[in-house]
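Reproducibility note. Readers wishing to regenerate the assembly model reported in the main text can use the exact inputs given here. Chain order matters: entities are listed in the order in which they were concatenated for prediction.
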Amino acid sequence: MATLYHHPLCPHSRFVRLILAEHAIETTLIEERAAERRREFLALDPAGRTPVLVDDDGTVVSGAMVIAEYLEETADPELNRLRLLPQTPRERAETRRLTEWFNLKFYEEVTNWLVTEKVYKRFLAPEIGGGAPDMDLLRVARANIRPHMRYIGYLTGARNWLAGETLSLADFAAAAHLSCADYLGDVPWDEYETVKHWYQRIKSRPAFRPLLSDRAVGTTPAACYADLDF
Amino acid sequence: MATLYHHPLCPHSRFVRLILAEHAIETTLIEERAAERRREFLALDPAGRTPVLVDDDGTVVSGAMVIAEYLEETADPELNRLRLLPQTPRERAETRRLTEWFNLKFYEEVTNWLVTEKVYKRFLAPEIGGGAPDMDLLRVARANIRPHMRYIGYLTGARNWLAGETLSLADFAAAAHLSCADYLGDVPWDEYETVKHWYQRIKSRPAFRPLLSDRAVGTTPAACYADLDF
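Running the prediction on these inputs yields the following structure tokens for the assembly.
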């Protein structure tokens, strides 16, 4: 069985867990606090970032998008399973652009601040950055999420799913990041009805269930986090 | 003919220019100062980052790795050209991991500081971040480049090229970022002989020539920048 080194509130790990679940690939989960820079973890991935997948043949694949591409390439074609990258190069480029949008831009502007300040810092020693959350950074993240909500609303208003007519990696990237912000109570759902409807559709998928029952040590999820009718 | 929106000292643009040149795809280059957030450029790519490729059928592809994947997928298979992503999923994962290493990690730790402080800030209005370079940030970037040089040295000591036995996207990503640092005189070549030998091999390729004759307005390249025997 494959192994995934992850953190429950690492949005990139959640992105990969959603893809694995959609493909019905069972995985052993190992929780990793990347900031502690554990020697054995750095030996697997010198960049020292979650997620890292160790496939059952020992292949080490690290980085959210690298793992996503690897899973697309290695999934058994006989299974005629869901494809999360569409067929044409143009559609694939749009899917990758939006996947990167969430995994890089949304992360830099929103989830990195929320998760680092509210979760990671609580468990780090002060000499490696631990401490109380910086409220100014949280305010910036909560302001930054709004243009992203508008953009998701614009896309899902014009298309069936984020990158086009079919469900794709882009939807899972967006949902993974939003689910972290949602766990922490930082998504202004009521102001963005179209986004809420799109998120309800993806949140109802069986692949989402394990994320909804996740509990990060010492952090209680927001009241409606696991509610499908929030 | 395809069009590439780029900046001469944007390392991600250089990465794409190298790939286009290796594939002998002629492109019209349009210089873009992304920080100015020109309306027509944002309409092409809402993330507002170089590079953006507009293919000759009008397909807009934005982001360095997204363009690289698109070029791999669309290049004419009849031409039996150089493949910059290897054949097996395991090798492809290693190539993508290292490409991302340079395009994200090296960029965050080295090239972003060097190019922003030494080049971009000179041409920006003060109200959008223009001004004199911050010498502390430059010192940090010059310290940060050293572990990367050791890592490139380790990889090229153990393998023929960065990601394995064949030339790949990873080599062009590393070379693109190093070429920006080299233009600005910030690569300590003399301390890393193995890296220098690898860089000499890639710098000698015809695809590299246009980069070596590049001149960014107001910034003169370091003395040995265009010298193949530096």
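We highlight two features of this model. Chain B has two domains: 2-79, 89-212. The helical segments of chain B are 11-22, 39-44, 64-74, 89-123, 135-158, 169-183, 193-203, 209-212.
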